[in-house]
Write a structure and sequence with these properties.
Number of strands: 17
Helix content: 25-40%
Distance between the termini: 53 Å
CATH architecture of the largest domain: 3-Layer(aba) Sandwich
Number of domains: 2
Signal peptide: 1-22
Keywords: Calcium, Hydrolase, Metal-binding, Signal
Cofactor: Ca(2+)
CATH class of the largest domain: Alpha Beta
CATH superfamily of the largest domain: Alkaline Phosphatase, subunit A
GO molecular function: iduronate-2-sulfatase activity; metal ion binding
Order of helices and strands: EEEHHEHHHHEEHEHEEEHEEHHEEEEEH
Bound molecules: 2-acetamido-2-deoxy-beta-D-glucopyranose
Number of helices: 12
Oligomer: single chain
Protein name: Sulfatase N-terminal domain-containing protein
Structural class: alpha+beta
Strand content: 15-25%
Protein backbone atom coordinates (compact mmCIF):
# COMPACT_ATOMS: atom_id res chain seq x y z
CA UNK A 1 0.00 0.00 0.00
CA UNK A 2 1.18 3.44 -0.85
CA UNK A 3 0.03 6.55 0.94
CA UNK A 4 0.06 9.82 -0.91
CA UNK A 5 1.42 12.94 0.56
CA UNK A 6 -0.36 14.97 -2.04
CA UNK A 7 -1.84 18.29 -2.57
CA UNK A 8 -3.93 18.61 0.49
CA UNK A 9 -3.34 20.99 3.25
CA UNK A 10 -6.33 19.43 4.98
CA UNK A 11 -7.84 20.84 8.00
CA UNK A 12 -7.92 24.40 8.58
CA UNK A 13 -9.06 23.57 12.01
CA UNK A 14 -10.48 26.74 13.34
CA UNK A 15 -11.79 26.54 16.81
CA UNK A 16 -13.64 29.48 18.24
CA UNK A 17 -14.27 29.20 21.93
CA UNK A 18 -16.97 31.15 23.64
CA UNK A 19 -17.38 31.50 27.36
CA UNK A 20 -20.66 30.79 29.09
CA UNK A 21 -23.71 29.75 27.20
CA UNK A 22 -22.10 30.02 23.83
CA UNK A 23 -21.65 27.43 21.18
CA UNK A 24 -18.24 26.55 19.82
CA UNK A 25 -17.05 26.51 16.24
CA UNK A 26 -14.83 23.96 14.52
CA UNK A 27 -14.05 25.56 11.18
CA UNK A 28 -12.38 23.25 8.63
CA UNK A 29 -11.55 24.50 5.15
CA UNK A 30 -9.97 21.64 3.22
CA UNK A 31 -7.60 22.56 0.40
CA UNK A 32 -8.79 21.71 -3.13
CA UNK A 33 -11.62 19.44 -1.96
CA UNK A 34 -14.25 18.65 -4.60
CA UNK A 35 -17.87 17.98 -3.71
CA UNK A 36 -17.20 14.33 -4.37
CA UNK A 37 -18.11 11.86 -1.65
CA UNK A 38 -20.81 9.32 -1.10
CA UNK A 39 -23.33 10.45 1.44
CA UNK A 40 -23.25 14.16 0.69
CA UNK A 41 -22.67 14.17 -3.07
CA UNK A 42 -23.58 10.69 -4.39
CA UNK A 43 -20.24 9.42 -5.74
CA UNK A 44 -19.49 5.84 -4.88
CA UNK A 45 -15.80 5.56 -5.76
CA UNK A 46 -14.04 7.32 -2.88
CA UNK A 47 -13.81 5.86 0.60
CA UNK A 48 -14.89 8.61 3.03
CA UNK A 49 -16.63 6.98 6.01
CA UNK A 50 -16.06 9.90 8.37
CA UNK A 51 -17.33 12.55 5.98
CA UNK A 52 -20.29 10.27 5.24
CA UNK A 53 -21.14 10.07 8.90
CA UNK A 54 -20.74 13.82 9.29
CA UNK A 55 -23.02 14.41 6.31
CA UNK A 56 -25.75 12.23 7.81
CA UNK A 57 -25.76 14.46 10.86
CA UNK A 58 -25.37 17.76 8.99
CA UNK A 59 -26.99 20.18 6.58
CA UNK A 60 -25.35 19.58 3.19
CA UNK A 61 -25.22 22.34 0.57
CA UNK A 62 -25.44 21.24 -3.07
CA UNK A 63 -24.97 24.72 -4.51
CA UNK A 64 -22.13 26.29 -2.55
CA UNK A 65 -19.56 28.40 -4.42
CA UNK A 66 -16.25 30.09 -3.73
CA UNK A 67 -15.61 33.65 -4.90
CA UNK A 68 -12.23 33.09 -6.61
CA UNK A 69 -10.92 29.61 -7.55
CA UNK A 70 -7.46 29.77 -6.04
CA UNK A 71 -6.31 29.77 -2.43
CA UNK A 72 -5.12 33.28 -1.62
CA UNK A 73 -8.08 35.32 -2.94
CA UNK A 74 -10.61 32.72 -1.81
CA UNK A 75 -9.27 32.53 1.70
CA UNK A 76 -8.85 36.29 2.01
CA UNK A 77 -12.50 36.54 0.99
CA UNK A 78 -14.15 34.02 3.31
CA UNK A 79 -11.88 34.84 6.26
CA UNK A 80 -12.94 38.50 6.06
CA UNK A 81 -16.52 38.19 4.76
CA UNK A 82 -15.67 40.36 1.76
CA UNK A 83 -15.57 39.72 -1.99
CA UNK A 84 -12.29 39.90 -3.95
CA UNK A 85 -13.28 43.26 -5.48
CA UNK A 86 -13.45 44.59 -1.92
CA UNK A 87 -10.31 42.93 -0.52
CA UNK A 88 -8.39 43.82 -3.73
CA UNK A 89 -6.79 40.40 -3.42
CA UNK A 90 -6.94 38.70 -6.82
CA UNK A 91 -4.45 36.31 -8.29
CA UNK A 92 -1.66 37.99 -10.22
CA UNK A 93 -2.67 41.59 -9.64
CA UNK A 94 -3.87 43.70 -6.78
CA UNK A 95 -2.69 43.23 -3.23
CA UNK A 96 -1.16 40.20 -1.63
CA UNK A 97 -3.44 40.24 1.38
CA UNK A 98 -6.45 42.04 2.81
CA UNK A 99 -4.50 43.91 5.50
CA UNK A 100 -3.02 46.15 2.79
CA UNK A 101 -6.54 47.25 1.84
CA UNK A 102 -8.20 47.06 5.24
CA UNK A 103 -5.60 47.26 8.02
CA UNK A 104 -8.32 47.47 10.65
CA UNK A 105 -10.84 45.04 9.23
CA UNK A 106 -12.05 42.45 11.69
CA UNK A 107 -11.42 38.97 10.38
CA UNK A 108 -13.79 36.10 11.12
CA UNK A 109 -11.72 34.60 13.97
CA UNK A 110 -11.01 38.11 15.25
CA UNK A 111 -14.75 38.80 15.43
CA UNK A 112 -15.14 35.84 17.74
CA UNK A 113 -12.07 36.77 19.74
CA UNK A 114 -13.41 40.27 20.30
CA UNK A 115 -16.61 38.74 21.58
CA UNK A 116 -15.18 36.63 24.35
CA UNK A 117 -14.20 33.52 22.43
CA UNK A 118 -10.85 31.84 22.52
CA UNK A 119 -9.86 31.51 18.86
CA UNK A 120 -7.03 29.17 18.06
CA UNK A 121 -5.85 28.19 14.63
CA UNK A 122 -3.53 25.93 12.74
CA UNK A 123 -2.82 24.87 9.18
CA UNK A 124 -4.08 26.77 6.15
CA UNK A 125 -6.73 29.06 7.51
CA UNK A 126 -5.23 32.00 5.75
CA UNK A 127 -2.74 31.10 3.03
CA UNK A 128 0.90 31.15 4.19
CA UNK A 129 2.12 34.74 4.21
CA UNK A 130 -1.23 36.16 3.01
CA UNK A 131 -1.54 37.87 5.44
CA UNK A 132 1.94 37.53 6.94
CA UNK A 133 2.38 35.46 10.06
CA UNK A 134 -1.18 34.02 9.87
CA UNK A 135 -2.47 37.44 10.91
CA UNK A 136 -1.01 37.00 14.37
CA UNK A 137 -1.68 38.54 16.80
CA UNK A 138 -4.87 40.16 15.48
CA UNK A 139 -6.91 37.14 14.46
CA UNK A 140 -5.97 34.66 17.13
CA UNK A 141 -6.04 34.43 20.92
CA UNK A 142 -2.58 34.34 22.40
CA UNK A 143 -3.15 31.33 24.67
CA UNK A 144 -1.22 29.13 22.27
CA UNK A 145 0.85 29.95 19.24
CA UNK A 146 -0.69 29.43 15.80
CA UNK A 147 0.18 25.91 14.55
CA UNK A 148 1.76 26.83 11.23
CA UNK A 149 1.18 25.00 8.00
CA UNK A 150 4.12 23.11 6.59
CA UNK A 151 4.56 20.45 3.96
CA UNK A 152 6.91 17.51 4.36
CA UNK A 153 9.46 17.24 1.58
CA UNK A 154 9.39 14.14 -0.55
CA UNK A 155 12.28 11.77 0.02
CA UNK A 156 14.67 11.48 -2.91
CA UNK A 157 13.65 8.04 -4.15
CA UNK A 158 12.67 6.65 -7.55
CA UNK A 159 9.02 6.18 -6.63
CA UNK A 160 8.87 9.64 -5.24
CA UNK A 161 9.89 11.05 -8.59
CA UNK A 162 7.75 8.92 -10.87
CA UNK A 163 5.21 11.66 -11.44
CA UNK A 164 7.97 14.22 -11.72
CA UNK A 165 7.51 15.42 -15.27
CA UNK A 166 3.78 16.06 -14.78
CA UNK A 167 3.51 17.43 -11.31
CA UNK A 168 4.48 21.00 -10.75
CA UNK A 169 5.87 20.70 -7.29
CA UNK A 170 7.62 17.37 -7.04
CA UNK A 171 9.10 18.22 -3.70
CA UNK A 172 5.76 17.91 -1.96
CA UNK A 173 3.73 15.58 -4.23
CA UNK A 174 4.79 11.97 -4.24
CA UNK A 175 3.66 8.48 -3.33
CA UNK A 176 5.12 7.17 -0.09
CA UNK A 177 5.30 3.68 1.28
CA UNK A 178 3.24 3.61 4.44
CA UNK A 179 5.57 1.09 6.10
CA UNK A 180 8.44 3.50 5.84
CA UNK A 181 6.43 6.64 6.50
CA UNK A 182 3.86 6.20 9.25
CA UNK A 183 0.78 8.40 9.53
CA UNK A 184 2.51 10.69 11.97
CA UNK A 185 5.05 11.64 9.25
CA UNK A 186 2.36 13.64 7.49
CA UNK A 187 1.45 17.19 8.32
CA UNK A 188 -2.28 16.44 8.30
CA UNK A 189 -1.80 13.86 11.03
CA UNK A 190 0.22 16.32 13.08
CA UNK A 191 -2.40 19.01 12.67
CA UNK A 192 -5.15 16.61 13.71
CA UNK A 193 -3.04 15.62 16.70
CA UNK A 194 -2.46 19.22 17.58
CA UNK A 195 -6.14 19.98 17.18
CA UNK A 196 -7.15 17.18 19.51
CA UNK A 197 -4.74 18.52 22.13
CA UNK A 198 -6.13 22.00 21.55
CA UNK A 199 -9.67 20.72 22.10
CA UNK A 200 -8.59 19.23 25.43
CA UNK A 201 -7.00 22.52 26.40
CA UNK A 202 -10.09 24.49 25.46
CA UNK A 203 -12.40 22.11 27.23
CA UNK A 204 -10.40 22.43 30.44
CA UNK A 205 -10.26 26.19 30.09
CA UNK A 206 -14.01 26.41 29.66
CA UNK A 207 -15.92 29.01 27.70
CA UNK A 208 -16.70 29.18 24.03
CA UNK A 209 -14.11 28.68 21.33
CA UNK A 210 -13.39 28.85 17.64
CA UNK A 211 -10.82 26.45 16.26
CA UNK A 212 -9.53 26.50 12.70
CA UNK A 213 -7.16 23.64 11.61
CA UNK A 214 -6.67 22.58 8.01
CA UNK A 215 -4.03 16.65 -0.41
CA UNK A 216 -1.55 14.27 -17.27
CA UNK A 217 -0.52 10.55 -20.57
CA UNK A 218 -3.65 8.61 -19.59
CA UNK A 219 -1.68 6.39 -17.24
CA UNK A 220 -0.32 9.39 -15.41
CA UNK A 221 -3.77 10.98 -15.37
CA UNK A 222 -5.09 7.87 -13.74
CA UNK A 223 -2.26 7.96 -11.23
CA UNK A 224 -3.04 11.55 -10.38
CA UNK A 225 -6.74 10.84 -9.95
CA UNK A 226 -5.85 7.81 -7.89
CA UNK A 227 -3.56 9.96 -5.76
CA UNK A 228 -6.22 12.64 -5.37
CA UNK A 229 -8.85 10.14 -4.26
CA UNK A 230 -6.38 8.49 -1.89
CA UNK A 231 -5.69 11.92 -0.42
CA UNK A 232 -9.38 12.52 0.13
CA UNK A 233 -9.61 9.23 2.03
CA UNK A 234 -6.56 10.20 4.03
CA UNK A 235 -8.02 13.59 4.90
CA UNK A 236 -11.26 11.83 5.76
CA UNK A 237 -9.43 9.66 8.30
CA UNK A 238 -7.81 12.70 9.92
CA UNK A 239 -11.12 14.55 10.08
CA UNK A 240 -12.53 11.40 11.67
CA UNK A 241 -9.95 11.61 14.45
CA UNK A 242 -10.89 15.20 15.23
CA UNK A 243 -14.63 14.47 15.17
CA UNK A 244 -14.10 11.46 17.41
CA UNK A 245 -12.25 13.66 19.88
CA UNK A 246 -15.22 16.05 19.94
CA UNK A 247 -17.45 13.09 20.83
CA UNK A 248 -15.05 11.67 23.41
CA UNK A 249 -14.83 15.01 25.19
CA UNK A 250 -18.62 15.50 25.06
CA UNK A 251 -18.14 18.71 23.06
CA UNK A 252 -20.06 17.69 19.94
CA UNK A 253 -23.51 18.85 21.06
CA UNK A 254 -22.32 22.41 21.57
CA UNK A 255 -19.98 22.71 18.62
CA UNK A 256 -20.78 23.95 15.15
CA UNK A 257 -18.75 21.92 12.64
CA UNK A 258 -18.17 23.73 9.35
CA UNK A 259 -16.42 21.65 6.70
CA UNK A 260 -15.84 22.96 3.19
CA UNK A 261 -13.38 23.22 0.31
CA UNK A 262 -11.59 26.51 -0.32
CA UNK A 263 -12.37 26.04 -4.05
CA UNK A 264 -13.07 23.17 -6.43
CA UNK A 265 -10.64 21.18 -8.59
CA UNK A 266 -10.37 19.85 -12.13
CA UNK A 267 -9.03 16.32 -12.49
CA UNK A 268 -8.52 16.40 -16.24
CA UNK A 269 -12.06 17.46 -17.17
CA UNK A 270 -11.93 20.09 -19.97
CA UNK A 271 -8.28 19.02 -20.34
CA UNK A 272 -7.71 21.03 -17.25
CA UNK A 273 -6.05 20.27 -13.95
CA UNK A 274 -6.35 21.89 -10.56
CA UNK A 275 -8.41 25.05 -10.09
CA UNK A 276 -7.82 28.52 -11.53
CA UNK A 277 -10.84 28.73 -13.83
CA UNK A 278 -14.40 30.02 -13.56
CA UNK A 279 -15.94 26.66 -14.39
CA UNK A 280 -18.37 24.90 -12.11
CA UNK A 281 -15.68 22.32 -11.35
CA UNK A 282 -13.34 24.97 -9.96
CA UNK A 283 -15.79 27.21 -8.13
CA UNK A 284 -18.29 24.77 -6.68
CA UNK A 285 -17.29 23.49 -3.27
CA UNK A 286 -18.51 20.96 -0.75
CA UNK A 287 -20.12 22.57 2.30
CA UNK A 288 -21.28 20.49 5.24
CA UNK A 289 -22.44 22.19 8.44
CA UNK A 290 -23.42 20.34 11.57
CA UNK A 291 -25.46 22.32 14.08
CA UNK A 292 -26.80 19.79 16.60
CA UNK A 293 -29.17 22.39 18.09
CA UNK A 294 -30.87 22.73 14.69
CA UNK A 295 -32.29 19.21 14.45
CA UNK A 296 -34.51 19.99 11.45
CA UNK A 297 -31.37 20.38 9.32
CA UNK A 298 -29.73 17.06 10.21
CA UNK A 299 -29.23 14.83 7.20
CA UNK A 300 -30.92 17.32 4.85
CA UNK A 301 -29.65 18.61 1.53
CA UNK A 302 -30.12 22.19 0.51
CA UNK A 303 -30.34 23.44 -3.08
CA UNK A 304 -30.10 27.04 -1.96
CA UNK A 305 -27.38 29.07 -3.69
CA UNK A 306 -24.85 29.95 -1.02
CA UNK A 307 -21.37 31.44 -1.17
CA UNK A 308 -18.31 31.12 1.04
CA UNK A 309 -18.47 34.87 1.62
CA UNK A 310 -21.75 34.13 3.49
CA UNK A 311 -20.00 32.04 6.13
CA UNK A 312 -18.94 34.96 8.32
CA UNK A 313 -22.52 36.12 8.93
CA UNK A 314 -23.98 32.61 8.95
CA UNK A 315 -21.58 31.16 11.52
CA UNK A 316 -22.01 34.19 13.77
CA UNK A 317 -25.78 33.81 13.70
CA UNK A 318 -25.80 30.03 14.12
CA UNK A 319 -23.75 30.17 17.32
CA UNK A 320 -25.46 33.27 18.69
CA UNK A 321 -22.41 35.55 18.49
CA UNK A 322 -23.08 39.28 17.98
CA UNK A 323 -23.86 40.06 14.39
CA UNK A 324 -20.94 41.45 12.40
CA UNK A 325 -20.71 45.04 11.19
CA UNK A 326 -22.41 46.41 8.07
CA UNK A 327 -19.12 46.29 6.20
CA UNK A 328 -19.26 42.49 6.11
CA UNK A 329 -20.62 41.25 2.77
CA UNK A 330 -22.59 38.09 2.17
CA UNK A 331 -25.93 37.01 3.56
CA UNK A 332 -26.59 34.89 6.62
CA UNK A 333 -28.34 31.69 5.55
CA UNK A 334 -28.76 30.52 9.17
CA UNK A 335 -32.57 30.65 8.87
CA UNK A 336 -32.47 27.83 6.30
CA UNK A 337 -31.49 25.45 9.10
CA UNK A 338 -35.06 25.80 10.41
CA UNK A 339 -36.64 25.42 6.94
CA UNK A 340 -34.27 23.01 5.26
CA UNK A 341 -36.65 21.89 2.52
CA UNK A 342 -36.95 25.17 0.61
CA UNK A 343 -35.96 24.93 -3.04
CA UNK A 344 -33.44 27.30 -4.62
CA UNK A 345 -36.05 29.98 -5.44
CA UNK A 346 -37.90 29.72 -2.13
CA UNK A 347 -34.65 29.85 -0.19
CA UNK A 348 -33.50 32.96 -2.06
CA UNK A 349 -36.84 34.64 -1.37
CA UNK A 350 -36.55 33.76 2.32
CA UNK A 351 -33.06 35.30 2.38
CA UNK A 352 -34.18 38.37 0.45
CA UNK A 353 -31.74 37.77 -2.42
CA UNK A 354 -31.73 36.27 -5.88
CA UNK A 355 -30.74 32.64 -6.40
CA UNK A 356 -27.25 33.28 -7.69
CA UNK A 357 -23.56 32.79 -6.81
CA UNK A 358 -20.74 34.98 -8.07
CA UNK A 359 -17.10 34.16 -8.74
CA UNK A 360 -14.27 35.77 -10.65
CA UNK A 361 -10.87 34.97 -12.13
CA UNK A 362 -8.07 37.00 -13.68
CA UNK A 363 -6.33 36.44 -17.04
CA UNK A 364 -3.43 38.29 -18.61
CA UNK A 365 -2.75 37.82 -22.31
CA UNK A 366 0.79 38.04 -23.64
CA UNK A 367 -0.54 39.58 -26.78
CA UNK A 368 -4.06 40.56 -27.70
CA UNK A 369 -3.79 38.81 -31.06
CA UNK A 370 -1.94 35.70 -29.88
CA UNK A 371 -3.27 32.68 -31.77
CA UNK A 372 -3.78 30.62 -28.64
CA UNK A 373 -5.01 33.04 -26.03
CA UNK A 374 -5.68 30.30 -23.55
CA UNK A 375 -2.00 29.35 -23.51
CA UNK A 376 0.15 30.90 -20.81
CA UNK A 377 -2.36 33.55 -19.83
CA UNK A 378 -1.89 33.34 -16.11
CA UNK A 379 -1.36 36.74 -14.57
CA UNK A 380 1.67 35.53 -12.70
CA UNK A 381 3.47 35.05 -16.02
CA UNK A 382 2.64 38.37 -17.61
CA UNK A 383 1.08 41.56 -16.41
CA UNK A 384 -0.02 42.76 -19.84
CA UNK A 385 -3.54 42.83 -21.30
CA UNK A 386 -5.42 42.25 -18.09
CA UNK A 387 -8.93 40.83 -17.91
CA UNK A 388 -11.28 39.85 -15.13
CA UNK A 389 -13.68 37.01 -15.83
CA UNK A 390 -16.85 37.60 -13.83
CA UNK A 391 -19.07 34.57 -13.52
CA UNK A 392 -22.59 34.07 -12.22
CA UNK A 393 -24.31 30.77 -11.57
CA UNK A 394 -28.11 30.89 -11.54
CA UNK A 395 -30.55 28.00 -11.63
CA UNK A 396 -30.07 26.38 -15.05
CA UNK A 397 -27.16 28.54 -16.33
CA UNK A 398 -23.60 29.66 -15.76
CA UNK A 399 -22.57 32.87 -17.50
CA UNK A 400 -19.03 34.30 -17.58
CA UNK A 401 -18.03 37.66 -19.07
CA UNK A 402 -14.36 38.55 -19.62
CA UNK A 403 -14.10 42.26 -18.93
CA UNK A 404 -11.12 44.46 -19.66
CA UNK A 405 -9.44 45.59 -16.46
CA UNK A 406 -8.54 49.14 -15.60
CA UNK A 407 -5.49 49.03 -13.35
CA UNK A 408 -5.64 52.67 -12.36
CA UNK A 409 -9.13 52.29 -10.89
CA UNK A 410 -8.72 48.63 -9.84
CA UNK A 411 -12.00 48.01 -11.60
CA UNK A 412 -13.33 46.33 -14.72
CA UNK A 413 -14.39 48.53 -17.63
CA UNK A 414 -18.08 47.81 -17.26
CA UNK A 415 -18.87 50.62 -19.69
CA UNK A 416 -17.31 48.48 -22.48
CA UNK A 417 -18.66 45.32 -24.03
CA UNK A 418 -17.16 42.07 -22.71
CA UNK A 419 -14.08 40.87 -24.58
CA UNK A 420 -15.52 37.33 -24.61
CA UNK A 421 -18.47 35.52 -23.04
CA UNK A 422 -19.31 31.96 -22.04
CA UNK A 423 -22.75 30.52 -21.39
CA UNK A 424 -23.33 27.00 -20.13
CA UNK A 425 -26.64 25.20 -19.92
CA UNK A 426 -27.28 23.65 -16.52
CA UNK A 427 -30.90 22.59 -17.06
CA UNK A 428 -29.77 18.99 -16.88
CA UNK A 429 -27.59 19.27 -13.81
CA UNK A 430 -30.24 21.30 -12.01
CA UNK A 431 -33.00 18.86 -12.89
CA UNK A 432 -34.38 16.28 -10.51
CA UNK A 433 -32.94 13.39 -12.52
CA UNK A 434 -30.12 12.63 -10.10
CA UNK A 435 -27.37 14.05 -12.29
CA UNK A 436 -26.67 17.14 -10.23
CA UNK A 437 -23.36 15.78 -9.02
CA UNK A 438 -22.19 14.37 -12.34
CA UNK A 439 -18.71 15.77 -12.81
CA UNK A 440 -18.43 15.13 -16.52
CA UNK A 441 -21.52 16.54 -18.07
CA UNK A 442 -21.50 20.20 -17.21
CA UNK A 443 -20.11 22.99 -19.25
CA UNK A 444 -18.94 21.10 -22.32
CA UNK A 445 -20.42 23.53 -24.85
CA UNK A 446 -20.49 27.32 -24.86
CA UNK A 447 -24.06 28.10 -25.92
CA UNK A 448 -23.78 31.90 -25.76
CA UNK A 449 -24.40 32.36 -29.51
CA UNK A 450 -27.57 30.30 -29.36
CA UNK A 451 -29.07 32.20 -26.43
CA UNK A 452 -28.51 35.94 -26.96
CA UNK A 453 -31.39 36.94 -24.71
CA UNK A 454 -30.05 34.89 -21.78
CA UNK A 455 -26.60 36.43 -22.34
CA UNK A 456 -28.09 39.92 -22.29
CA UNK A 457 -30.02 39.32 -19.11
CA UNK A 458 -27.11 37.74 -17.27
CA UNK A 459 -24.67 40.43 -18.48
CA UNK A 460 -26.99 43.00 -16.90
CA UNK A 461 -27.15 40.96 -13.74
CA UNK A 462 -23.35 40.74 -13.53
CA UNK A 463 -22.93 44.42 -14.23
CA UNK A 464 -25.41 45.57 -11.64
CA UNK A 465 -23.91 43.22 -9.08
CA UNK A 466 -20.25 44.05 -9.56
CA UNK A 467 -20.20 47.58 -10.96
C1 LIG B 1 18.40 12.81 -5.88
O1 LIG B 1 18.92 11.67 -6.51
C2 LIG B 1 19.47 11.90 -7.82
C3 LIG B 1 19.85 10.56 -8.46
O2 LIG B 1 20.51 9.76 -7.52
C4 LIG B 1 20.66 12.87 -7.69
O3 LIG B 1 21.18 13.16 -8.97
C5 LIG B 1 20.19 14.17 -7.02
O4 LIG B 1 21.26 15.04 -6.80
C6 LIG B 1 19.45 13.87 -5.70
N1 LIG B 1 18.87 15.10 -5.21
C7 LIG B 1 18.95 15.47 -3.93
C8 LIG B 1 18.25 16.76 -3.59
O5 LIG B 1 19.54 14.82 -3.11
C1 LIG C 1 0.76 15.73 19.50
O1 LIG C 1 0.49 17.10 19.87
C2 LIG C 1 1.01 17.48 21.14
C3 LIG C 1 0.52 18.90 21.40
O2 LIG C 1 0.84 19.77 20.35
C4 LIG C 1 2.52 17.37 21.15
O3 LIG C 1 3.01 17.69 22.41
C5 LIG C 1 2.91 15.93 20.78
O4 LIG C 1 4.31 15.85 20.68
C6 LIG C 1 2.27 15.52 19.46
N1 LIG C 1 2.56 14.11 19.18
C7 LIG C 1 3.29 13.73 18.13
C8 LIG C 1 3.55 12.23 18.02
O5 LIG C 1 3.75 14.52 17.30
C1 LIG D 1 3.81 28.62 -23.06
O1 LIG D 1 4.88 28.40 -22.15
C2 LIG D 1 5.57 27.20 -22.37
C3 LIG D 1 6.60 27.04 -21.22
O2 LIG D 1 7.16 28.27 -20.90
C4 LIG D 1 6.22 27.23 -23.76
O3 LIG D 1 6.92 26.00 -24.01
C5 LIG D 1 5.12 27.42 -24.81
O4 LIG D 1 5.71 27.55 -26.09
C6 LIG D 1 4.30 28.66 -24.49
N1 LIG D 1 3.19 28.76 -25.45
C7 LIG D 1 2.86 29.87 -26.07
C8 LIG D 1 1.71 29.83 -27.03
O5 LIG D 1 3.47 30.92 -25.88
Amino acid sequence: MVAYNYIFAFLLLALFITIGEGKNVLFMPVDDLRPEMLEAYDQKYIHTPNLDRLAKESFVFQRAYCQHAVCIPSRNSFMTGRRPDTTHVWIGFGNANFRVTGPDWISLPEHFKKNGYTTLGGGKTFHPNSPPNWDEPKSWSQDQPYFPFSLAKCPNTTTAHKLGAYVADIDTWCPLDEKEYPDSYHYDWQLANHTIHTLKYLKDKGGPWFVAPEPIPIEIQQSIRHAYYASVSWVDSQIGRVLQALDDMSLADDTLVVLFGDHGFQLGEHDSWAKMTNWELAVRVPLIIRAPWKPASAGKRSHAFVELVDLYRTISELVGAPSPGDDIEGVSFASLFDSPDLNAHEAALALNKTPAAYSQYTRCLKSIDAPKQWDNNSCSETSKNKFMGYSVRVPNWRYTAWMEWDDSRLKAKWESEPYAVELYDHHKSDGADGTENDFNQCEIENVADKNPEVVKELQNQLKSFFN
